[in-house]
Structure formats: structure tokens, C-alpha cells
């Protein structure tokens, strides 16, 4: 249980175009989802917290207009990279909060490898 | 200084060996400690969590926390090739609300058959 499905797993796009990444909670409702970015051999960096039915909360230094987050339902959050540039190439991962026994943990999607050419 | 420091490795050990993975942290307010395993091109999966000093065991895995020295460890006994992955430690200030996780950089581990 508690599976987060993320699509696409890999995408290559041209510079200047927009790319949408979807994250779905398959067997639970996720009122909050988190979007991370991971560079090679680097840690996961939290980009934003996505709340169902309200505006996302972005971390300092993350461009809101470039990384559009929509959380229209309890099972779907999307991240749109607008006007993508090569420096946006990275591994993007979504996450949702779950309950593991009595502990609030986080389950992650399988990630999206974005390459901007 | 990063809040969570982790040796990126890579670390290679022969199959069957005991593996020791470590993180240090600077924020004494961290209360919850987790270890995630991440296979190549996949998202992290939660391995273990703990919220107190001491040891917690789950099968071949043991998580150890020493809050006095701000040091956390993950031990893997009887290591298997399938354990080859990147291991990330993650800390949180609390277990309430939508608490942010602070991740280490991850240690890439290879178990040699």
C-alpha cells in the first residue's frame, strides 16, 4: 500500500518548451505532496510543498513562475517546468506523507529524469 | 556547515560483510531520524526510522542514534548484492504536521558478489 505513481519516468524536451510531471497517490489520499529535485551525487532538495486546493509553498530560491505546481485533487499533484532550459535538467521526485505504524513517514515516487536539450 | 553531513562514498564491500553507514548532524533540535534506500533512477524508499537515542533492529538492518554526539548509523549484516544502492539519512524536527525532511547527500554502496 501507500504507492505514489510518478509519470513520466524520463522526458527529453527542447529548450523553451514546457514539461508536466504527474504524481498520483494510488491507494490513499494525499492532502499534501512534496516536490524534490536531485542532482547527481547530491542530496534531495525540497522545492515546494503542494497542498490540495490551495497554493503551493515554495522553498527559498525556487522560482514560482518557472515551477508551477497544481494539486487539484486529493490524489493528483503536478509539476510543470515552464520554458525549460538546460540548467533545469535534473531528477525530480514527488513525495507524500504516510503513516507507518505510529510514525509519519514519507513515500516517494519513482522520479522523473528531465533532460532539456 | 550543512545540517546533515554524509560521506558520499562510493563504498564497496564483499558480499556477507557488515556495512556501516554514518551521518552527522549539526541541529540538536532534530528528533526523528530515518534511513532511505535509493536504487538507481528510482525514488527513495523508507528503510528505518527512529526517534530516540539507541538501537533499532529490523532483520539485517540496525539503526543507531547517538544524540549526544549528533551521530546516526545504519548497519547492514550479511550484506547482499541486492543491497547495492545509495543510502540516504534524513532528519526531521518533529513528527507532526507537514514536517520537512533534511537529507544527507547519500552514500553509494556496492556489494561485490
What does this structure look like?
The complex is a heterodimer of chains A (117) and B (113). Chain A has 117 residues and is mostly beta strands. Chain A is built from no helices and eleven strands. In chain A, the strands form two sheets. In chain A, strands 2, 4, 5, 6, 9, 10 and 11 form a seven-stranded mixed sheet that branches. In chain A, a hairpin with a 2-residue loop joins strand 9 (90-100) and strand 10. In chain B, a hairpin with a 2-residue loop joins strand 6 and strand 7 (61-66). Chain B contains no helices and eleven strands. The model of chain B has no long low-confidence stretch (mean pLDDT 90). In chain B, strands 2, 4, 5, 9, 10 and 11 form a six-stranded mixed sheet that branches. Chain B has a five-stranded antiparallel sheet with strand order 1-3-8-7-6, with no helix packed on it. Chain B is an all-beta fold and 113 residues long. Chain B has strands spanning 4-6, 11-14, 19-25, 32-38, 45-50, 54-58, 61-66, 71-76, 85-92, 102-103, 107-112. Chain B starts with a strand and ends with a strand.
Amino acid at each position: 500500500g501507500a504507492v505514489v505513481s510518478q509519470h513520466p519516468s524520463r522526458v527529453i524536451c527542447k529548450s523553451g518548451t514546457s514539461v508536466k510531471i504527474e504524481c498520483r497517490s494510488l491507494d490513499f489520499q494525499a492532502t499534501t505532496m512534496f516536490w524534490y529535485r536531485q542532482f547527481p551525487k547530491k542530496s534531495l532538495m525540497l522545492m515546494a510543498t503542494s497542498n490540495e486546493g490551495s497554493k503551493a509553498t515554495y522553498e527559498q530560491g525556487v522560482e514560482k513562475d518557472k515551477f508551477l505546481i497544481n494539486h487539484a485533487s486529493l490524489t493528483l499533484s503536478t509539476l510543470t517546468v515552464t520554458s525549460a532550459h538546460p540548467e533545469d535538467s535534473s531528477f525530480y521526485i514527488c513525495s507524500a506523507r504516510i503513516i507507518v505504524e505510529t510514525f509519519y513517514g514519507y513515500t516517494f515516487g519513482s522520479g522523473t529524469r528531465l533532460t532539456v536539450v | 556547515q550543512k545540517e546533515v553531513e554524509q560521506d558520499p562514498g562510493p563504498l564497496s564491500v564483499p558480499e556477507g560483510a557488515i556495512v556501516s553507514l554514518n551521518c552527522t548532524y549539526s541541529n540538536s533540535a532534530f528528533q526523528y531520524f530515518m534511513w532511505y534506500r535509493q536504487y538507481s533512477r528510482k525514488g527513495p524508499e523508507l528503510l528505518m526510522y527512529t526517534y530516540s537515542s539507541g538501537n533499532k533492529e529490523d532483520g539485517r538492518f540496525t539503526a543507531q542514534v547517538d544524540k549526544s554526539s549528533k551521530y546516526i548509523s545504519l548497519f547492514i549484516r550479511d550484506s547482499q548484492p541486492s543491497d547495492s544502492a545509495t543510502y540516504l539519512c534524513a532528519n526531521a524536527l518533529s513528527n507532526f504536521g507537514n514536517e520537512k525532511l533534511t537529507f544527507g547527500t547519500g552514500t553509494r554502496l556496492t556489494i561485490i558478489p
